Amino acid sequence: MGSAVAPWKSLLLSALESNGHFKHSKFLQLATIGTNGRPSNRTVVFRGFEEGTDRIHIYTDSRNRKIEELKNCPFAEICWYFTESWEQFRISGRMEVVDASCVDATKFKQRAEAWSSISPKSRMQYLGPSPGLPHLAEQPAKEPFLDSCSGPVDTFCLLVFDPDQVDYLNVRSDERNSFKAITSFGGEKLWETERINL
Amino acid sequence: MGSAVAPWKSLLLSALESNGHFKHSKFLQLATIGTNGRPSNRTVVFRGFEEGTDRIHIYTDSRNRKIEELKNCPFAEICWYFTESWEQFRISGRMEVVDASCVDATKFKQRAEAWSSISPKSRMQYLGPSPGLPHLAEQPAKEPFLDSCSGPVDTFCLLVFDPDQVDYLNVRSDERNSFKAITSFGGEKLWETERINL
């Protein structure tokens, strides 16, 4: 029998708590499939779980290469290593891109809330020149103005990651578990746990 | 004009030096393409540069999933974040698997040297049960014996990663550079540098 509550979520929350005094404990590596078919891998920031779910939120600029990649292939794998507690989570799943074109009321609201949660400095980055393009020596003469009360700018994207498989490794206790999501007859997402070799 | 010496290599060596008091500074995330076509991502240990080159060495167990993945698709991307100096290296390239079947004399020697460089404890792991397979409660009654002078066991693999593109980001100095390898008319590998937007 599977479990409706993701058993790896409590392990992850514990790891976040015990490594929480390091800012970098919220940094994880996100792998996607590049548009050239090669793997693509970068560091992103964990922005929390969607309330009452095991879905993970990440914010990004719509002009980043990963958006095009995810539109071609929505599958991703997170590798998250906690340096202090020596724990690794490999989380595989499907990524949804919630961008300015989103018309779903719930997601529209989530994106607006995400935007209000970030700092004014972070917001300004979404108004800067296109990430990854050649850097021009001549930059705009003055800083763009951003009303602190206005909603998300067009380049602001919320990524919603829906895991279906997790590989948990604890290097200290020499323990490794595999968690797999299955769908019940009632359509509910259930998690099965299996201990695997290191 | 490109440079024959990889300009990102000195940046990487500096990052390793300034983060060297953390054991985890040698941990990096390696993304490959899974046999199901989805991205695959895990933490591995940097074992150094091949002498006089910009090729990176990694050791692994031949029974690991990444070996099958790399035999299907040899491309990989490393994401390496240095927590102390706030630097990120994304290194894209091609991975060569040097396993027990290798007949090339130079690579045969490199694999043997790699095996002698690791600790007795690390060596024993290559004799353990298959990584990632279900864990059986009953383990072998006694530890397998390993002669400290003998050559590498069959499951020991040397991975040689040959980079062709590097994206370097320094979060502190707000600097980002792209390095691309090109081949000269003489067949030499040359590196071109371009500053890109954050």
Descriptive account of the structure:
Chains A, B: It comes from Cucumis sativus (Cucumber). Chains A, B: This is pyridoxal 5'-phosphate synthase. Chains A, B: Keywords: Flavoprotein, FMN, Oxidoreductase. Chains A, B: Its cofactor is FMN. Two copies of one chain form a homodimer. Chain A has 198 residues and is α+β, with helices and mostly antiparallel strands. Chain A has a single domain, classed as Pnp Oxidase, Chain A, CATH 2.30.110. In chain A, 20% of the residues lie in helices and 36% in strands. In chain A, strands 1, 2, 3, 4, 5, 6, 7 and 8 form an eight-stranded antiparallel sheet that branches. In chain A, strand 4 and strand 5 form a beta hairpin. The first copy, chain A, is globular. The two termini of chain A are 24 Å apart. The relative contact order of chain A is 0.20. The mean pLDDT of chain A is 95. The interface between A and B is large, with 44 and 44 residues.
